[in-house]
Amino acid sequence: MAVRKLAVLSAGLSQPSSTRMLADKLTSATVSRLEEAGIETEVTTIELRDIAHDIMNNMLTGFPSPKLDAAIETVTGADGLIAVTPIFTTSYSGLFKSFFDVIDNRSLTDMPVLIGATAGTARHSLALDYSLRPMFTYLHAVVVPTSVFAASEDWGSGADQIKTLPERIERAAGELAGLVAVSDRSSRVDDPFALDPSFSPTGGFQAD
């Protein structure tokens, strides 16, 4: 049986969190779809709250801790990524963005990615398309067409809410599973047009 590596990022700050709950549901649905295709999945879930200090120290010093380095390697070495963030002030959380700020901006080239987000109200649902999707497009990842947003009412007891969220999860999971099934980490190449991460128009010094 073929084996694929799936990395899951949850940027929820509380414990338990609706962000982690959504990440788990997306993971379970994706794994089920891959199993149906005869593909075994090795899943590694990363709670960014557990490495928040490591991320900040890396931003200040330029050097990752062993714990952060392992998380980065897990994400960049995966066949597919599920990334879920809470929405704060109409965009992804600072912790979520900071993690992607410290990884090489070429390391997610051709990576299949499923994006998800949570918030207290459905008014923030467009953040997936104007914040998360552009960021992963900039990183040259392959973002699946269906993104999944869950507001507080989506976890309620209403019949419409119970039906709608699982449908979105299943559709997105099917799209990701299809890409992960044919993903080949060894065939990925760096973007030949990407700037070197150390490039600076000021002669090599990083601006604050």
UniProtKB/TrEMBL annotation:
GO molecular-function term, one example from the UniProt record: oxidoreductase activity
Start and end residues of each NADPH-dependent FMN reductase-like domain: 5-155
InterPro entries xrefs: CE1759_FMN_reduct, Flavoprotein-like_sf, FMN_Rdtase-like_dom, NAD(P)H-dep_FMN_reductase
Keyword set, alphabetical order: Flavoprotein, FMN, Oxidoreductase
PANTHER family: FMN REDUCTASE (NADPH) (PTHR43408:SF2)
NCBIfam families xref list: LLM_duo_CE1759
Protein name, UniProt field: NADPH-dependent FMN reductase
Lineage: Bacteria, Bacillati, Actinomycetota, Actinomycetes, Micrococcales
